[in-house]
Amino acid sequence: MDAVFLISTLVKILLVFSGVLGLVVLLTWQERKQSALMQDRIGANRAAILGFRLFGLIHSAADGLKMMSKETFMPAHARKAVYMIAPLLAASFAMMAFAVIPFGDSIELFGLVIPLRIAGMSVGILYVFAMMSLSVYGVVLAGWASNNKFAFLGGMRACSQMIAYEITMGATLLGLVLIFQTLDLNAMVQAQGTLIGGVLPRWGIFLQPLGFLLFLTAGIAETKRVPFDLPEGESEIIGYYVEYSGMRFGLFMMTDFIETVLVAALVTTLFLGGWQVPFLASDGFHFPGGAEVKLSGIAVSLLQMAAFALKVYVLCWLLLLIRWTLPRFRFDQLLQLGWKYLLPASLANIVLTAAALYLLK
User: Is the pTM for the entire model greater than 0.90?
Assistant: First the structure.
């Protein structure tokens, strides 16, 4: 039994990490092509292997080879040990947050029921926020260890920005916690499996529409990408990784995309039903009016995982769309938005949710 548990856990870790990193590679290509379409350009289409260009996908492989082959520069007066470990801290903690996100309900193999998540925690939301908070250390330490005023300023910007918007994210989720009465992410997804009025899915976006908008906005700020890319303001020559090159610089860039996937996965889990498919139960589809389509347990699990992956991908597309549509905020505007508007709105959402639950009770 212990051996099967260990093997299944290793398989789930491999599946989640390969899926996330594979999507990150795809997003590096998609960002180029999507921005090119929005700006009436062709985009990346030159790199080829044996004459095959594959719509520019080869550019992602070329970028990876370039990052690994470039010279790794280290500033003369940098704090060397911290300078080298900072990119690993940022990327590692961002990846570890995926451990509690369920990408399916469960699957039965060889008489054993295997939950489709790496680790089951009754306080999964708190774990995710802990990992996201620890990821900030890599950013701040990178700016400090570079011994560069511009890098240090970028690190301080990142710290103040993440504090402001993580508070909003946490306060926003309290509305869902009041409704679902749990901090377990998988239990929240299961609670979204019922229907409102027999037709409308009981997803978080319908129960907490304001919370959805607030969480999505704060999540975009957590990724440190436009319009919230003040910590890495390229046009200002300010950025916590301004002194980084080679694969260490590549790790920071990859972390931004990992956090984009993480935010999309969290929004999917909390507000879009996670792996839930409308009218799909454990034995198949049950449509209004009595129509049924019976499916095997394996088919149901595959549909759930496909639904989760599709929702995450669509949200990643939306985040890239926002990134190439909106201009960058000034730093004072960014902090005002977080402290003066989003945080009060999230607190008001808690009060309104509590009042509605009391009246409905």
Answer: yes
